[in-house]
Structure formats: C-alpha cells, structure tokens
C-alpha cells in the first residue's frame, strides 16, 4: 500500500557528548520520540563539523575528537511533533532544531485482519 501525505521533518543538531539525565542526549530524544508514538527516528554521527562556537570537531586518526556532531532526524505529521518540541526546549542546552515541511511517500505491506 502507498501512502502520500504532507508531514514535517524535525532535525536536531547536537554534539555527541551532550547529555540528558545521565544518558546521551541523542538517545534520550529517540526514547522520547518512541514514547510519544512518533513514526520513527534516525541518528547520524558526523565525521566533521562545527557549531555556534566555531570549534571544528573531526574524526581523524591523529586528532580524534571526543565530541563529534550528531544529527537526529524525525519525520511525522505536524501535530504529532509538538510534544517532542516541548521536550527539546527542556533537554537541548546547545544545538539547533530545524523544522521543514515535507511530502512523504510511505510504503506499507497490506495488513489483513
């Protein structure tokens, strides 16, 4: 079955060492998204980047950074993302959140009951 609908992509840019209540922040975001029943979440670990402080973080053999960039991406319907935004307001101390309107095309197996 093919489903096509408008949605919103929420992208969170944070550092690998950012924490929330004793656990990695990216993991806390994924757990919160799951708790809220969102469609899914994906975490990407960057190999190089810089943020607001302009300090470059890179994964190179001779200069390994302990704080590589991390991106958490979630796509769902606009109204379903609101509770997660409230959580991010509290949990993200330094980072960037980007919201983009997108059109999704989802493919699902036909489920017979």
Automatic annotation (TrEMBL):
Pfam family, one: DUF190
Chain segments annotated as coiled-coil in the UniProt record: none
Family stated for the protein in its record: Belongs to the UPF0166 family.
Protein name as annotated: DUF190 domain-containing protein
Organism: Thermaerobacter subterraneus DSM 13965
Taxonomic classification: Bacteria, Bacillati, Bacillota, Clostridia, Eubacteriales
């Amino acid at each position: 079955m093919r489903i096509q609908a408008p949605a919103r992509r929420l992208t969170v840019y944070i550092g690998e060492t950012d924490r929330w209540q004793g656990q990695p922040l990216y993991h806390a975001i994924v757990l919160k998204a799951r708790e809220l029943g969102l469609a899914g979440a994906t975490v990407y670990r960057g190999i190089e980047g810089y943020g607001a402080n302009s300090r470059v973080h890179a994964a190179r053999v001779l200069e390994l950074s302990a704080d590589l960039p991390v991106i958490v991406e979630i796509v769902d319907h606009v109204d379903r993302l609101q509770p997660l935004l409230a959580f991010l307001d509290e949990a993200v101390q330094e980072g960037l959140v980007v919201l983009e309107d997108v059109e999704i095309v989802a493919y699902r197996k036909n489920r017979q009951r």
